[in-house]
From TrEMBL:
Gene3D superfamilies: TolB, C-terminal domain. This is Uncharacterized protein. It comes from Deinococcus aerius.
Length: 250
């Protein structure tokens, strides 16, 4: 079990949590089937998101470098050493780092790219970071994530959506990205014909108490029209999507 620090958005009335200043790990609090036991392997990590093992059985942990609520730290790949020590293998400049796989002597990391677009990067045991693909549409709620190395030299990974409903709204401003990328929205994978349903909200991008109208698959503040056709994109690819790529450098 790996534990770390997390930052939560306010619940807006749904439920309240008052976490202690120091998190206590109590394996007995976790129910597992008979014959299994829970043991804390590492604590005090900073937004851990993934674990991988090399040929020698050594444990590697990915720290995201970001939490919803606009908390930015440093994304890192760490190796857990015997005796509780940690060795930094690599660190990134753009977060979050989501998902980790180890194959053929190298690490593969999904870089969410909350600032500059998503990437899949390959990291050598010595810490050299090589992008395999970049400029992915990973600027919104859900990011580039979870690379897995499969057969034939392919790397499979997920590409998340800008929003939860294909409509950019005030919740995306709460997450922070709408103010950084006001023209960003969801990208369909097939032609979408809109019925012109639009939604009026407050405008968090201006100091005045004005309102805007936004339609599906449109930038914030842009209404849609009945019968409007939204075309898919292949560069950047659609979101959401499960994608694959061959291991070649861009």
């Amino acid at each position: 079990m790996l534990t770390g620090c997390y930052n939560l958005l306010p619940s807006n009335g749904g439920g309240q949590a008052n976490p202690p200043a120091v998190r206590t790990v109590r394996p007995a609090d976790i129910a597992v089937p008979a014959g299994y036991r829970v043991e804390a392997v590492a604590t005090g990590l900073d937004f851990p998101t993934a674990v991988a093992f090399d040929e020698q059985g050594r444990v590697y942990v990915l720290e995201a470098g970001y939490s919803y609520g606009e908390v930015f730290t440093v994304p890192r790949l760490l190796r857990l050493e015997q005796g509780g020590g940690r060795m930094e293998i690599a660190r990134g400049e753009s977060s979050p780092w989501n998902g980790l796989d180890y194959a053929n002597g190298a690490f593969y990391v999904g870089e969410g790219g909350g600032i500059g677009g998503g990437r899949i990067v390959k990291i050598s045991p010595g810490g050299q970071v090589t992008p395999l693909v970049q400029n992915l549409p990973s600027l919104g709620d859900h990011h580039t994530n979870s690379p897995v190395v499969g057969r034939g030299g392919y790397v499979y990974f997920g590409q998340g959506t800008a929003t939860n409903s294909s409509v950019v709204g005030t919740d995306n401003a709460d997450y922070g990205w709408l103010k950084r990328f006001p023209q960003f929205d969801d990208i369909p994978c097939v032609d979408i014909t809109l019925n012109g349903r639009n939604f009026q909200t407050g405008n968090p991008l201006t100091p005045a108490a004005d309102t805007v109208v936004t339609g599906a698959y449109q930038p914030f503040g842009t209404p849609s029209r009945p019968g409007q056709v939204v075309k898919p994109s292949f560069q950047p690819p659609a979101s959401p999507a499960v994608l694959r790529l061959r291991q070649r450098m861009v």
